[in-house]
Amino acid sequence: MFAELTRETGQNTYSMISMLSLAFEGMGSFCSRQKPYSEADAEENEQAAEIERRIAQETKAEQHIHKLLLLGAGESGKSTIFKQIKLLFQTGFDEAELRSYTSVIHANVYQTIKILYDGAKELGQNESDSSKYVVSIENKEIGEKLSAIGSRLDYPYLTKDIAHEIKTLWKDAAIQETYARGNILQVPDCAQYFMENLERLSEADYVPTKEDVLYARVRTTGVVEIQFSPVGESRKSGEVYRLYDVGGQRNERRKWIHLFEGVTAVIFCAAISEYDQMLFEDETKNRMMETKELFDWVLKQACFEKTSFMLFLNKFDIFEKKVQKVPLNVCEWFKDYQPKASGKHEVEHAYEFVKKKFEELYFQSTKPDCVDRVFKIYRTTALDQKLVKKTFKLVDETLRRRNLIEAGLL
Amino acid sequence: MPQYQQPPSWRLEGGGQILDLETAVKDGILGGGAGGCGLGSATCEKVDLKKMIEELEPVEDVPSVFICPISLEPMVDPVTLCTGQTYERFNILKWLSMGHLTCPTTMQELWDDAVTPNRTLHQLIHAWFSQRYLRFKKRSEDVQGRAAELLETLKKVKGQARVQALKELQKMAVDHSSVQKTVADYGGVALLTSLLGPFTSHAVGSEAIGILVNLSLDSEAKVNLMQPAKISLVVDMLNEGTIDTKINCTRLIEMLMGEKDFRSEIVSSLSLLAGLMRLAKDRRHPNGTWTGLSLLKTICSHERVRGLIVSVGAVSQLVELLPNLSPECLELALHILDDLSTIPEGRVALKDCPRTIPNAVRLLMRVSESCTQYALSILWAVCKLAPDECASLAVEAGLAAKLLLVIQSGCSPELKQRSAELLKLCSLNYTATLFISKCKLTRTIQ
Fold this sequence. Notes:
The complex is a heterodimer. Chain A is α/β, with parallel strands linked by helices. Chain A is built from 17 helices and six strands. Chain B is mainly alpha-helical. Chain A binds chain B through residues 233-234, 348, 352, 356, 359-360, 362-363, 368, 371-372, 374-379, 390-391, 393-394, 397-398, 401-402, 410, and chain B through 159-160, 198-199, 201-203, 228, 232, 236, 240, 242, 268-271, 274, 278, 311-313. Chain B: Its EC number is 2.3.2.27.
């Protein structure tokens, strides 16, 4: 027992007491009074020592953990990036986790079709060329039924029959016209993908694929975190990162402030495809303007003076297609945009324009003494796993270099 | 580096067999082939020797007996005077033709003005340089071969192997100019350019740029490099890299700007301009300062970008920097500020910075005429903008005395004219006597 006791490091008082107790033990009756006291005390001290040691260890370990924060407006792709990181650097999703997304995906399907059907009705009433938004008579019944389902709190399982009905309605000309006007409604970006895969989604033993999970849309509320370590080529253990994902809607942002201390890098997600869409929580506000103001606010936070900023200009795949049909000028922030060419060159030109705007915003919002913080812009499509992996590799390299520079080693 | 083993004897182009130096010196014999080296081959050997000396320039440890005492250069056609001293034929003939009849080194009077070709020495010089030349050529070939190998490797490997190959190639390109040609011949420029893209890691990008910047790039290559994604990468590396990387990136952009179809949008990047300012302000690396300022000056010549330069706060930063700059950098910085003073935002920024006037006044007539010209132009712009507040500040800083100096100096007439106008502008708010006292005339006279 004595040997065990002496193995405890730095516990001088404790070893002294143990030595004393042993000394007293040898003194016969004199120490029989001491024994119970010193044992109880010794146990307490042992526990206290153990706790203190654990705290010291964890604090030391914490210092090597880099805190990454995913920020951005609602539906900017933060959670998708979060899922991608999970897939890339952790064990990914096991079958149980994949199955847990089935209800979410089905819910997305019901929500989408309801939004489209209700939207068609609305456009049919308000628009001048209302006839093209009128759903055909056969499909109207389906539409009403689905709309009713969609407004319930829990949705039924997506059976083959219902899926078939949804598919029919989706193919209706009026619904397609409504979908083309999707920007003024709150149609989620996953709409087309799920609609095209309805057969598969409605299988009896349907288990969502990784891609399905990435497309699934749930409004994040609260904060979620994962810890991971991107393993490099050399297979040495690299940096340890802890990634936090938050809700982007306005009412969620008050929870952000609790996370702002000690952040290594902020990954700010901005969906560049939403320059013609309105907020979910406020249909009078343009989403791009909201993102602009939010980014500005985040940049000016005092606690981020030394924090690196990685701006992910996300949803490039949707941007690519949209920019050829909808000019950038519809967004007030981009009103001075002048199209140059057409086709692929136009896309590049538009993207460079948006990038410059964000760069301008960064420099306007940054005080002169903060200009030394790292600021990099990345073009991303969060759904593309290869792209996210490549992008994250660059982010990791930048942060590691930054670390070395700060330590004076570079 | 592979060791070049010198064989005991070898054949030369002229056909003469040369013994190694030790043997030649020891025995004084130059081998069988020497007889065949008549006048004809002496001439052709001379040409070869000249070429070798040129290609090997600068050679360091040439034996002193090979050097002509008149020109201090290795002798190509050594001739000996009657005094026994040897000189380069051309030089000694020139000396003699100028009417001197003495030996230049011994100062003895010449009793015989004949010059005798010193064949022995010639052979020795030839042998010595040949040896060096062959070694040089072999090393060059090795290096070129290795460079070609590396380029092939680069087409195949990725990751760390790629970085290593690039590192080796860069070192070679810097040390050996022949490698630059090899890289160009094997399509290295296109290959390296293709490595640069939005997903290029810093390690790969910085090495590739380090190689490209040492090559001469043709028009096509430059246009290729001007793609926005590649420029973004260069700008990122300029902001994040080591000082060498920063300088390489800056130099590369400057090379691209020389291209005739260059559009100013390419450098209209706030990140680039902020990065250049950061480079210029870095006191630890003066060569970085010069490179950064040089590019900024080139960018400033594009009027459209001037507004952006002002918006990153360059004006006050440059003004603050002025007292600590070397003369070359000072000229660049003042040139930039002068260019910026041509736009309204630039003028306002100059006026708002409290150190503009004192620093500019201090620089008048201090460094060079062009610096004075720029400083004067800046002061003019500022005083014109806000005569009431600036003129008095300038006078308080001792402007009047300096302007009088300029007018009295040997500067160009336009400069003097400008000074006179500025003097007049500043004196408007003062009475004559008060102004004269401000001019501190006694000090100028002193």
